[in-house]
Amino acid sequence: xxxxxxxxxxxxxxxxxxxxxxxxxxxxxxxxxxxxxxxxxxxxxxxxxxxxxxxxxxxxxxxxxxxxxxxxxxxxxxxxxxxxxxxxxxxxxxxxxxxxxxxxxxxxxxxxxxxxxxxxxxxxxxxxxxxxxxxxxxxxxxxxxxxxxxxxxxxxxxxxxxxxxxxxxxxxxxxxxxxxxxxxxxxxxxxxxxxxxxxxxxxxxxxxxxxxxxxxxxxxxxxxxxxxxxxxxxxxx
Length: 237
Description:
By secondary structure, the protein is an alpha/beta fold. It is built from five helices and eleven strands, in the order βαββαβαββββαβββα. The strands form two sheets. A nine-stranded mixed β-sheet has the order 2-1-3-4-11-10-9-6-7, sandwiched between helices. Strands 5-8 form a two-stranded antiparallel sheet. Strand 10 (about 185-190) and strand 11 form a beta hairpin.
């Protein structure tokens, strides 16, 4: 990244994606160039990082992310991620990353079997990933949450491994909104370049439109740190 004037962060659009424009806006607010990537094209356009945004993707009626993981662009994402490219999966993007085996475990229906939309407090448990460097360890942040397939599940051995290796990136604080194992809201791979979470940081990046942080109503920008984190890592790479 040294010598590059402006980082280029790709934002993938699948049929059904809802939050690609929000993610692209977050990228721009952080100071990078947002590059649109289409699911049907096996081309990452030389981007420096990739965001799989939230919403839905085709084939979700079988299982969230189960079909879109086979999209031409995902073959390139998997190869690039295994080579160290920073990749962030938000909500449906997290689901796609688990289906593509870039992250362990799976996502199933919320334990209350209902769609939920709320402002959710998270604890940052790992601030050493490509997407969390701007936060302090154990910092509490408020990020919007909206999903119906948000329950993170994995076998006990996998969850124990995630805990033991410090790969739980975020944990729900105060209330577990979907029944996820051990209140897990987001995880990272071993290398720390791939992160997935269910809440939506791209919806908390702009003053006046963010969540209520308790002292400045509608002023919360707790999600912006995801995008400034990856930029800081790219600049210093």
